[in-house]
């Protein structure tokens, strides 16, 4: 069996936001670095590099994961969604992103991509969450600007909008 060198590059193919892409990565390259440097998905932010801050959260096979805790090689062949993949193909924001804008749920924006990815996955699983449930989900993210109040409001509003749309009611975006 041939032993691999730590600097030997390998081809990694992933489905990124619905598109199959291939790039090279060294064996120790983190998924966060692979997304940003090799694939140009710079919406994935790198904060603590220890999985604590949540800034690098992406969805892998639908589950929210910390990209700084996963090697690029582990993602080979998998489907990955980053914050760039939340808007539709025309660039229109999704309901959660619109709600963030409406409620001013970001300030510096550094933590926002990771929070959006976590909330997207959570709101798909939990259609009508309570404020306490949203706060619990957000406890895995560090935001030094907002105090989370507007983020919670935005998530509650987005969940309510999804419920209104599923019941056939019109939504108001004032």
Polypeptide structure, described:
It is a single chain. The protein is of the alpha+beta class. The protein folds into two domains: 10-85, Beta-grasp domain (Ubiquitin-like (UB roll), Roll); 95-166, [2Fe-2S]-binding domain (DNA polymerase, domain 1). It contains five helices and five strands. It has helices at residues 31-38, 95-102, 112-125, 131-138, 149-166; strands spanning 10-16, 19-25, 57-60, 63-66, 79-81. It has a five-stranded mixed β-sheet, with helices on both faces. A hairpin with a 2-residue loop joins strand 1 (10-16) and strand 2 (19-25). Helix 4 crosses helix 5. The longest helix is centred in the C-terminal third of the chain and has 18 residues, at 149-166. The radius of gyration is 17 Å and the shape is elongated. The N and C termini lie far apart (63 Å). Residues 169-174 have low confidence and may be disordered.
List the helices and strands and how they pair.
Layout: E1 10-16, E2 19-25, H1 31-38, E3 57-60, E4 63-66, E5 79-81, H2 95-102, H3 112-125, H4 131-138, H5 149-166
Parallel strand pairs: 1-5
Antiparallel strand pairs: 1-2, 3-4, 3-5
Helix pairs in contact: 2-5, 4-5
List the main descriptive attributes of the protein structure presented here.
174 residues; five-stranded mixed sheet; 32% helix; Ubiquitin-like (UB roll); single chain; 2 domains
The average pLDDT score comes to 91
| Total of helices | 5
CATH superfamily of the largest domain: Beta-grasp domain
Please, how many domains? Answer: 2
What can be said about this structure in brief?
The protein has 174 residues and is of the alpha+beta class. The chain folds into 2 domains: 10-85, Ubiquitin-like (UB roll); 95-166, DNA polymerase, domain 1, CATH 1.10.150.
